[in-house]
Design brief:
4 helices; 33% strand; alpha+beta; seven-stranded mixed sheet; globular
């Protein structure tokens, strides 16, 4: 497995979109509102890769996972962390979070930040096991109950 930067030479955005959608599919019917992954397109992913710092884990030509990182004043925001269902449990997520940590350190940012949906308790546990702690709960527009948990990992 190899971690690559999604730069100007990356041209597999249809495959990347398929990876994200298949990796987030288990959330369908579990989370409300539905995942923003459903609003992604090839064009929006291409823009996202230019506007943010993106990485993928590959083996040969196969995409196994991806992460999009966005520098903020006091942390590196981790978004669209996706691991192909058949690659889960093989260390792909850890590889992606490791490259995010390296990126944050290179940018002199002291923490990683991510959001996970309130209903996805298995994600809360997985991120906690990797050193993330809950810092707040937020609600999507139009909701009066918390819909997301923000978690941070100090580096």
């Amino acid at each position: 497995m190899e971690t690559i930067r999604l730069d100007g030479s990356f041209d597999r955005y249809e495959d990347l979109l398929s990876l994200i959608l298949s990796s987030f599919a288990y959330m369908d019917g579990r989370i409300d509102p539905p995942s923003s992954a459903h609003t992604l397109t090839v064009a929006s992913l291409r823009r996202k890769a230019v506007d943010e710092i993106a990485f993928a884990v590959t083996t040969g030509r196969e995409l196994l996972g991806c992460v999009f990182c966005k520098p903020e004043p006091d942390c590196l925001y981790i978004g669209k962390l996706a691991v192909a269902p058949k690659a889960q449990g093989r260390g792909v997520g850890r590889m992606l979070l490791a490259v995010a940590e390296e990126t944050a350190r290179a940018l002199a940012l002291p923490a990683l930040r991510l959001q996970t949906r309130i209903e996805l308790t298995e994600n809360h546990a997985a991120f906690a096991a990797l050193g993330f702690v809950e810092t707040s709960r937020t609600a999507h527009p139009g909701f009066t109950r918390p819909t997301s948990i923000e978690m941070r990992k100090r580096l």
